[in-house]
Amino acid sequence: MLFDTHAHYDDEAFNPDRELLLESLPQRGVALVLNPGCDLDSSRKAVSYAAAYPHVYAAVGIHPENCAGFVPADIDVLRELARQPKVAAIGEIGSMAGRFSPITPESVLIRGLAEAQGITGYGAGPRAAPTGHFP
Length: 135
What we know:
Blueprint: E1 2-4, H1 18-24, E2 30-36, H2 40-52, E3 56-60, H3 73-82, E4 87-90, H4 105-116
Helix pairs in contact: 2-3
Protein backbone atom coordinates (compact mmCIF):
# COMPACT_ATOMS: atom_id res chain seq x y z
CA MET A 1 0.00 0.00 0.00
CA LEU A 2 1.36 3.43 -0.96
CA PHE A 3 0.45 6.88 0.35
CA ASP A 4 1.22 9.65 -2.14
CA THR A 5 1.93 12.46 0.30
CA HIS A 6 2.59 15.23 -2.19
CA ALA A 7 0.61 14.97 -5.42
CA HIS A 8 -0.32 17.92 -7.61
CA TYR A 9 -3.05 16.37 -9.72
CA ASP A 10 -4.30 19.83 -10.71
CA ASP A 11 -1.18 20.19 -12.88
CA GLU A 12 -1.97 20.59 -16.58
CA ALA A 13 0.09 17.48 -17.36
CA PHE A 14 -2.83 15.45 -15.95
CA ASN A 15 -5.49 17.21 -18.05
CA PRO A 16 -5.86 14.43 -20.65
CA ASP A 17 -6.65 11.65 -18.18
CA ARG A 18 -6.91 13.11 -14.66
CA GLU A 19 -10.24 11.50 -13.77
CA LEU A 20 -9.22 8.07 -15.07
CA LEU A 21 -5.90 8.28 -13.24
CA LEU A 22 -7.45 9.35 -9.93
CA GLU A 23 -10.09 6.62 -10.17
CA SER A 24 -7.46 3.96 -10.91
CA LEU A 25 -4.98 4.75 -8.12
CA PRO A 26 -6.35 2.25 -5.55
CA GLN A 27 -6.13 -0.57 -8.12
CA ARG A 28 -2.52 0.47 -8.74
CA GLY A 29 -1.61 0.19 -5.05
CA VAL A 30 -1.99 3.83 -4.05
CA ALA A 31 -4.37 3.73 -1.10
CA LEU A 32 -4.21 7.41 -0.08
CA VAL A 33 -3.32 10.71 -1.74
CA LEU A 34 -2.65 14.12 -0.21
CA ASN A 35 -3.05 16.74 -2.94
CA PRO A 36 -1.80 20.19 -1.86
CA GLY A 37 -2.89 23.51 -3.28
CA CYS A 38 -0.30 26.17 -4.08
CA ASP A 39 -2.73 29.06 -4.54
CA LEU A 40 -6.45 29.59 -4.15
CA ASP A 41 -7.34 28.01 -7.50
CA SER A 42 -5.30 24.85 -6.94
CA SER A 43 -6.52 24.67 -3.33
CA ARG A 44 -10.11 24.72 -4.56
CA LYS A 45 -9.27 21.98 -7.05
CA ALA A 46 -7.60 19.90 -4.33
CA VAL A 47 -10.77 20.17 -2.22
CA SER A 48 -12.94 19.18 -5.19
CA TYR A 49 -10.77 16.11 -5.93
CA ALA A 50 -10.97 15.13 -2.25
CA ALA A 51 -14.75 15.38 -2.38
CA ALA A 52 -14.92 13.29 -5.54
CA TYR A 53 -12.56 10.43 -4.65
CA PRO A 54 -12.64 8.54 -1.34
CA HIS A 55 -8.86 7.96 -1.28
CA VAL A 56 -7.91 11.62 -1.95
CA TYR A 57 -7.38 14.25 0.75
CA ALA A 58 -6.53 17.92 0.30
CA ALA A 59 -4.11 20.46 1.69
CA VAL A 60 -4.87 24.13 1.15
CA GLY A 61 -2.55 27.10 1.12
CA ILE A 62 -0.59 29.66 -0.85
CA HIS A 63 3.02 28.86 -1.66
CA PRO A 64 5.42 31.79 -1.23
CA GLU A 65 6.21 31.85 -4.94
CA ASN A 66 2.48 32.23 -5.67
CA CYS A 67 1.67 35.02 -3.25
CA ALA A 68 2.24 38.07 -5.46
CA GLY A 69 -1.50 38.75 -5.78
CA PHE A 70 -2.27 37.95 -2.16
CA VAL A 71 -4.90 40.09 -0.43
CA PRO A 72 -5.95 39.66 3.23
CA ALA A 73 -9.39 38.37 2.16
CA ASP A 74 -7.59 35.29 0.78
CA ILE A 75 -7.18 34.12 4.38
CA ASP A 76 -10.97 33.94 4.68
CA VAL A 77 -11.10 31.79 1.56
CA LEU A 78 -8.36 29.51 2.93
CA ARG A 79 -10.16 29.28 6.25
CA GLU A 80 -13.38 28.18 4.54
CA LEU A 81 -11.53 25.66 2.39
CA ALA A 82 -9.70 24.34 5.47
CA ARG A 83 -13.05 23.60 7.12
CA GLN A 84 -14.02 21.12 4.42
CA PRO A 85 -14.24 17.55 5.72
CA LYS A 86 -11.34 16.05 3.76
CA VAL A 87 -8.82 18.85 4.18
CA ALA A 88 -6.07 17.17 6.15
CA ALA A 89 -3.32 19.80 6.06
CA ILE A 90 -2.50 23.45 5.59
CA GLY A 91 0.12 23.79 2.90
CA GLU A 92 1.81 24.67 0.51
CA ILE A 93 2.43 27.60 2.77
CA GLY A 94 5.95 26.99 4.05
CA SER A 95 9.12 28.71 3.02
CA MET A 96 11.25 27.05 0.41
CA ALA A 97 14.15 29.44 1.06
CA GLY A 98 17.35 28.20 -0.45
CA ARG A 99 15.59 25.62 -2.59
CA PHE A 100 13.00 27.09 -4.92
CA SER A 101 12.14 30.58 -3.77
CA PRO A 102 13.38 33.15 -1.30
CA ILE A 103 11.56 34.14 1.84
CA THR A 104 9.47 37.08 0.74
CA PRO A 105 7.63 39.70 2.75
CA GLU A 106 4.43 38.23 1.35
CA SER A 107 5.22 34.72 2.63
CA VAL A 108 5.94 36.10 6.09
CA LEU A 109 2.66 38.03 5.90
CA ILE A 110 0.74 34.92 4.90
CA ARG A 111 2.18 32.96 7.83
CA GLY A 112 1.37 35.79 10.24
CA LEU A 113 -2.16 36.19 8.94
CA ALA A 114 -2.73 32.45 9.03
CA GLU A 115 -1.65 32.31 12.66
CA ALA A 116 -3.70 35.36 13.56
CA GLN A 117 -6.77 33.83 11.93
CA GLY A 118 -6.37 30.56 13.79
CA ILE A 119 -5.10 28.52 10.85
CA THR A 120 -2.39 26.44 12.45
CA GLY A 121 -0.61 23.22 11.67
CA TYR A 122 0.70 24.34 8.31
CA GLY A 123 3.94 22.93 7.08
CA ALA A 124 5.30 19.71 5.70
CA GLY A 125 3.13 17.16 7.46
CA PRO A 126 -0.59 16.55 7.75
CA ARG A 127 -2.49 17.91 10.70
CA ALA A 128 -5.12 15.91 12.46
CA ALA A 129 -8.47 16.80 10.96
CA PRO A 130 -10.78 17.97 13.74
CA THR A 131 -13.47 15.54 12.64
CA GLY A 132 -11.07 12.60 12.37
CA HIS A 133 -11.57 12.07 8.63
CA PHE A 134 -7.90 11.60 7.87
CA PRO A 135 -6.98 7.97 8.53
